[in-house]
Protein 1
Amino acid sequence: DTGVSQDPRHKITKRGQNVTFRCDPISEHNRLYWYRQTLGQGPEFLTYFQNEAQLEKSRLLSDRFSAERPKGSFSTLEIQRTEQGDSAMYLCASSGTGGVNQPQHFGDGTRLSIL
Amino acid sequence: AQSVTQLDSQVPVFEEAPVELRCNYSSSVSVYLFWYVQYPNQGLQLLLKYLSGSTLVKGINGFEAEFNKSQTSFHLRKPSVHISDTAEYFCAVTLSGGSYIPTFGRGTSLIVHP
């Protein structure tokens, strides 16, 4: 169990630029989740995958946000035309096969700062 | 839909004192409950979980929690805290037979003073 890995850990960019984050889940986990976390708040769900299928994406914050998991392994989260309000920590988590009682395993997140 | 309320945004306590972090949930169906801890600049780490069975659940780092169905609560306790327990604590719930998407509380910041 090597844990969930996220890259980069920090990203600083100018407003209007596109950014892409990568998440590598625990290898045997089939579910992968993306969250946004702002200061003083809990994780805010964005989207999740079961294998390569994106099963919930209606809670992505706007059409500027998109996520992929092309081979059911790693995933990417892209934000196009970034805005200052996108500054936050973006967390990835994975969970194993089984029911809704499976806990989530989190990466250390990517902190995005928009100048 | 389920919801989670963490009643205290911040809990200051002295080292070696006991602490209780409160979590209440609302749901009309059976739930699974989790507590996670988040240290600065890190992701969340599972402390403990309640799935079924004994209502008193023991977790890592000396923490325990008690599931109370009648009060819809899942409070986290530790009899004697350390400076290293200073962190953000999140309660989360998923519904039995429901979505795989958990609902998280807003978090409680535990601040342990020497």
Protein 2
Amino acid sequence: AQTVTQSQPEMSVQEAETVTLSCTYDTSENNYYLFWYKQPPSRQMILVIRQEAYKQQNATENRFSVNFQKAAKSFSLKISDSQLGDTAMYFCAFMAQTQGGSEKLVFGKGTKLTVNP
Amino acid sequence: EPEVTQTPSHQVTQMGQEVILRCVPISNHLYFYWYRQILGQKVEFLVSFYNNEISEKSEIFDDQFSVERPDGSNFTLKIRSTKLEDSAMYFCASGVGYQPQHFGDGTRLSIL
């Protein structure tokens, strides 16, 4: 079974600064996907960024980028130029790639990020 | 942009009563999911559904839970006899194979 660990329950950052959220995972699968989801106080689940395990290049999406280290099973999220609207719970998630195509997401416990003015 | 729609946004039910949570997935999606998030905890997988049958279910998804896709658009989660510990946020999600799953805004279920 896969597990996802987020070791930072809470973090804070000053507006306009950079912050990195950590995520590690455990799996015996070789092919999989990793995601970061954002959950603001409204409790919606919003996809931030996605990484395919077979790609060596780290994914980027505007101010959001990841540092994917497959051998270390590490998948951290870097938020640059933090904005007040980035305040939210951030969940790291894993999805195995199998022939079925309907694999579930396995989530970490989340990191609560607060951006301070 | 197409959205996953969930109704109601908040449901309050007496313990022991049946509750049905409704979802309208994105129209061209083939895979459907229910997740649960107890307040302050992580999001947990309940069940996945494909081709009109359950693909996978978790230990949480016991006999009191059932899912159905009664027509071409709706996807429902039924809890037959609710318990206090069923109080949670329930998220519906849909997807197309290995593309990211799109989540609805959730239904907050409160059991009294």
